Amino acid sequence: MLDAFSRAVVSADSKNAAIGGNELAGLRAYVAAGNKRLDAVNAISSNASCIVSDAVTGMICENTGLIQAGGNCYPNRRMAACLRDGEIVLRYISYALLAGDASVLDDRCLNGLKETYIALGVPLQSAARAVGIMKASSTAHINETNTSGTNPDETRFRKMETIQGDCSALVAEAASYFDRVASALA
Amino acid sequence: MKSVVTTVVTAADAAGRFPSQNDLEAVQGNIQRATARLEAAEKLAVGMDKVVREAGDACFKKYPYLKQAGEAGSNQIKVDKCYRDLGHYMRLINYCLVVGGTGPLDEWGIAGAREVYRTLNLPTAAYVEALTYTRDRACSPRDMSPQALNELKSYLDYAINSLS
After folding, report:
1. Could you tell me which chain B residue has the CA closest to the CA of A91?
2. ipTM
């Protein structure tokens, strides 16, 4: 497993060179945005069960066959497995975001995931859809652009109340990890 | 590769939980010290050639017998290899400063070093002398800020202790 710093070290080692100048600039950016990154990880982990259950609910709403007899979220046992997997994927994405590198996600979560799902008969498209919804809500939580959705009276959504600022780089990075999961399932 | 972040993530993963407040605090502590570490890494990278040359010179000055026939530095090729090895140690220390942990030194420098030096009949005292010279030669504010120097010296000490 690597983080942003050890990734730089491994690539410098393959060139047999010390790390200076340009590579350090990228790491200084990680350090400078360190608190933003921790807030972003906190935004995901604090809202994890909401993000996961919302994504699985949305996936089922779009494809109600999943919870009818013979569907892959029927009965409760398989629904529970689905929620569990959503949480696992989100957890590894939060690790990757904390580390600033996708290697933990690749090594410990995505490696062999597609083959496992195919063997178990899990519909890959539905799984990817749930990941897509998790991406939308996670990035909204990080950016604090989450809204009540279609119902204006809905008040059960939460802002993280961190200092406002430009989080576009972190949001893009987080989004790339979700996309990585989606493409691993494609 | 062991670093603060990977250690935190490994522990969280073993427990199957999301990064907790404790984890984030640990990473933040690492980030707060990062400025000094990266400064030391940069200064070391810039002065690398000079640092290596001075360290190697110091070692052959203290142990001139090394250049006699049958010793580890008996011809120019062997002497060059000594300087090259010191360059490796300095490079690994540069990596340690970047990562903020001893992972690079442990994995690429220290693991197996004792066996290799014994097999090739190399004196570790010479390496210790070179690294000690570097440690005592570095000073603040001429070379870097006091905090950065502190970080650099702690990794030099780590390498010295592993060889002695």
Report:
1. B18
2. 0.86
